[in-house]
Amino acid sequence: MKVLHVPGEISADTAKDEITVMKKVGSAVFRKKNPSFLEFLGAYLVEGHSKTDPKLQFKNKNGHPLPEKAQFVAIFMELVEGGRSIGDFPFKTDNERKSFVCQLVVGLMTAQKELGFSHGDLSVDNTIVTKTKLRTVAYILEGKAVKLKTSGVLLKIIDYGKSECSSDNKASTSFEDSDYTKLRNHAMDVFKVPGLKALADAVNNYDEEHASWYPNSELFNGLIE
């Protein structure tokens, strides 16, 4: 659950925009095509009164007191049990690391193609990983099924506060160089994790003029079923 003070931590319009994105990427229909996003369960406007408990005092994220009567947006999302940021997750093998990056790439590509999605704030803190017993994870990319071997790890992309989806709800069907550059920059955030330097070098040396992350990139060798 994510709780935001409105207005204060976030404006009403910003909260509305974030919830709109969550509804799209977290919908049951989209998650059948892309399991890398959190399931959206609902959002509610709630009102709190500090007078109901003399010991209670609402504070914002900076620790400053809020009014006795305050409004909050409570956003309910899927709970990822055991989920940890990639900087804290104990990756044990290169296959685990490689699977994580490939799930990130295909997850972002599918969202960009289907919804015109742009995360806007992707970092090691806004992607989490958890252990899984699933052997593969499936995506639908431009009508084609893509199955990736998990190697025992599962990715979730989180925190959509700065995310956007295109107004027409559909991205361009052609994956232009600019799109590739955005996706590469997203992946490079993950390459900052120790152990991924070789993959980072592979991406930097990849020919952008003939870039096609799926299925031609060497990044996916051995992971696609």
Description of the structure:
The protein is an alpha+beta fold and 225 residues long. It has 2 domains: 2-33 and 40-77, no CATH class; 84-220, no CATH class. It is 28% helix and 21% strand. The strands form 3 sheets. It has a 3-stranded antiparallel β-sheet with strand order 1-3-2, with helices on one face. A hairpin with a 2-residue loop joins strand 6 (136-141) and strand 7. The two termini are 35 Å apart.
Ranges where pLDDT stays below 50 over 5 or more residues in a row are 169-177, 205-216
Number of helices: 5
**How many domains in all?**
2
Tell me, rounded to a whole number, the average pLDDT: 73
H-E order: EHHEEEHEEEEHH
Task: Give the proportion of residues in helices.
Answer: 25-40%
Tell me, briefly, the overall form.
globular
Based on DSSP secondary structure assignment, what is the total number of beta strands?
8
What proportion of the residues form beta strands (DSSP E)?
15-25%
Radius of gyration: 19 Å
Largest sheet: 3 strands, antiparallel
Structural class: alpha+beta
Strand order of the largest sheet: 1-3-2
